[in-house]
Amino acid sequence: MMKRYWKISSLIVVILLGISSYYIHSAYSAKQLPEYIIKKQEGNSKVIEQLVIRGGYSNKAETASEMIEISSEGSEYSSEKSFISQIKSMDDDGEQIENLKRKYRSFMRGKNGQNSFYEDKRNLVYAEIEYRFQDNRQKFDFHIAALDKKSNEETSFKMAFPEGEKYSNVQLDDVQFSDGRVNVITKNYLSTNDAGQETELHLYSFNLLDKKLLSEEVILSDSDKKENTYTDYEKLSEANSMVPSNYIVINKTFIEQKQHENGETVEDIKGNELFVYNLREKKEEEVKLPNEVQQLNGTWSYYDAGKLYISEAKGGKVRVVTYDFAQKKVENQWQVPLGENGMISLATIFNNGNMYLLAAEDEGAEQGLEYASVIVADLETGKTEYRGTVVNKNANTKSDGQAYLSELIIE
Hints:
The chain is mainly β. The chain has two domains: 32-81 and 304-411, no CATH class; 93-247, no CATH class. Helix content is 12%, strand content 52%. The chain contains five helices and 25 strands. The chain has helices spanning 2-27, 83-90, 95-103, 105-108, 291-294, and strands at residues 36-43, 51-59, 65-71, 74-77, 117-119, 123-134, 137-148, 153-160, 167-178, 181-190, 199-207, 212-220, 229-235, 247-259, 265-278, 283-286, 299-304, 307-314, 317-324, 329-337, 343-351, 354-361, 372-378, 384-392, 401-410. Strands 1-24-23-22-21 form a five-stranded antiparallel beta sheet, with no helix packed on it. Strands 4-3-2-25 form a four-stranded antiparallel beta sheet. The chain has a four-stranded antiparallel beta sheet with strand order 5-6-7-8, with no helix packed on it. A hairpin with a 2-residue loop joins strand 3 and strand 4 (74-77).
């Protein structure tokens, strides 16, 4: 159901942007929309070949706007795409999923969502939580499917969600596969009368051959809930959720609810705890970060191969700290300058051992693109692999509009 709502919302957004695109294109019938490019300042341009910057473009009166994508090949506006292409781009799971759809067309039919897949040299495994209404209640079902890439043999089965009546919603966070077992990690929203959404993190293990549920374990839950408080769990981002991994890393947030005299309920984050769960040993452990790391004003944004990368943007620089789970210590730390003109970080992503940063001038950054920079740094050494600026290709042509950049993706 969540996917269905998301797609309906996406369709509405595309339709609205399509209408806006028509009007903005009409407004620019005499003038061409600006062609933005990423101009290299230093480094190897190959590292940004699959990088795309996403945002919006609007006229100065802000009466019309449309989506824009900027890459190493230039810029593309939503008005330049067909209506079908615009809808498809909203449902795009990235190049990795698209490659799977091309290679395993039959198996991949109707399957989406990077967190729903596991892949190794021989196996491609998929899990999904399906939603249905029955007896005026929302029901959940597991859908498990696997493809043996060597024999081309497919296995598929569905199963009612255990004690599904306890939950108002279920979110799939990760899928792993080992020794014939499909391990599915889910975030379960409990059906309570509380204003907050009480959640639990669960691990479901299935025997693929027998098509049976072997076990269900509660990884994390709030066993000591206090009045007017609730907890939330969020799985941290990882380099590639589709590859084999022994760990999942979870941020546990404590939230307090306060009700004002006017009846409005305000939520206040009272604290966080970080946990790492070992899938092989089936045990969780709280990560006790050193004081100097805890004091960073950044986010626990990324983990890979037993390492946690914490980033903090401050004073025109981004500092990155690497924490090793096994050694339980800070392994490395470095910082990269964002550039001149009081730059601030707008977006950060991690891919293939690199950190990608999008930065813009502090003054006017919320109002649009005056000067933007793209920086790629090696995660182990902090060495700048690439630095470039987003500029109008036709520098002598004045634009009557403004680009607003907000997102980085790797296609």
